[in-house]
Amino acid sequence: MSTQRVFVARLAGCAVFDPVGDRVGKVRDVVIVYRKTAAPRVIGLVIEIPGRRQVFLSIGRVTSIRAGQVISTGLINVRRFQPRHGEVRVLAEFLGRRVSLVDGSGNAIVEDAAIEQDRHGEWAITQLFLRKPKTNPSPFAKGPTTFAAWSEVAELRNPGEAQSAEQLVASYSELHAADLATSLLDLPQQRRIEVAEELPDERLADALEEMPENDQVNILDRLGDERAADVLDEMEPDDAADLLAQLPKERLEQLLALMDPDEAEDVRTLLRYGPDTAGGLMTTEPIILSADATVAEALALIRRHELHPALAAAVFVTLPPFETPTGRLLGVVHFQRMLRYPPHERLGAILDDSLEPVSVTASAAEVARMLASYDLVSLPVVDPVHRLVGAISVDDVLDYLLPDDWRTTDAEDATVEGAR
C-alpha cells in the first residue's frame, strides 16, 4: 500500500477505483474509533456508490491512497452505512471540536486531520491542523493556525460529542447541491437542523431542491418563519411552490406574505395550476427577449452563472411585456442556432416559429412525449391566448414522473463483501 500523510478534508470527494481502474464511488468521510493510549484508529471510509447510497469500505480493503484517488480490492459491502457505537465520522462529527494544547499555549479548533499508515499497516490520525482564537478584533480576521500531533492535544469535549455546526458547514462548502442534500440527510435529525441553520440561504435552498418533499418540510418546519421565507426566495419558483403545497394553508399564506413580493407572486401563479400539469411543473423565469434584441444580448443573458442549464438552451421571443405572463409568443431561438450568427443579428431574423408550445393544462405525460419526440430540453408554456407564462424543462418532468422515493431508493445489490 502506498504510504503517505493524507488530510481528510482533501480526501473527501476523491474517486474510488477497483484494481482494474473502474470507478466504484467517491469518498464521503473517514471513520475512526478512539483508543485509550493512542491516536484514533482509522477503520474505514464512507463512500458513495451509484444510487447516492453511502456504504462502508473497510480500510483493509484499501490498497492505495494517493492524491485524488483511492484504490480498493473491488470487494465492497453494499449495505447502507450506519455508524455503530463508538465509531466517529471525521468530517461529520470530529472536525470543529475544541482542543487544548498540552504545552499550555491555549485552546484551538480542529480544522483538519491527517491520517497515516504505520509500519504494521494500520491507519491512524497522526496530525491535526488547528486554528487558535483570533487576536485581531477585526470581524474579517482569523486566528493563527498550527499543526500538532495527537499526543500534543487534549479534547475539551467528551469523545462522541458533536462538533460545531459551523465547521461542518465549512467542510460542505464545495459539495454539489445533490451531494450536499445527501450529506445532510445522512446526519441525525437534530444535527441536520443545526447544520441547516448555519448554511447560507442560497446553499440551503439548493440542497432543499434536491431532497424528497417530506425531508424538505421537516427542515422548513424547524426554521423560523423569516428564515424559511428567505430560503424560499432563493429557491426556483417551481420548487418553492412544490414545497409550499405540502404545508397547511395557514402556514403557506404566512410564508408567502413574508417572501419577496415578486418571488411570492411567481409562486402564487404556479400554485394555481394542478401539480401534474405543465403549469404546475414549469418555471416562470425563462429568458425572454424581444424580436429586436440581438444575438449578443441573448448570449449575455445565457452566460449568467445562476441560470439552470436547461433554461439556458433557448431564448423565448415575445411581444411586450417581457415578463410572464408576456405578450404573444412569437417563437424560440436555440442556443446552438445563435452560435451560427454574428453578434449583431436580430433574434427575429433567426426565429424558430415551428415549435409548438404546450398549454398550461397539458399533462406531465404529454409534455414528456413532446420533449422526447423533438429531442428538446425545454418547452414554452402558454395560456389560452398564446401568452408565454413559463417554460418547462426535462428535469421538471423527470422529477414528477420518477417514483416519489427515487432520491433515496437503494441501488440493486451487486457485490456483497459480508458483514462488517
UniProtKB/TrEMBL annotation:
Keywords: CBS domain
CBS domain ranges (all copies): 282-350, 351-409
SMART domains named among the record's database cross-references: CBS, MgtE_N
Pfam assignment, any one: SH3_actinomycetes
Keyword Protein biosynthesis listed: no
Protein name from the UniProt record: CBS domain-containing protein
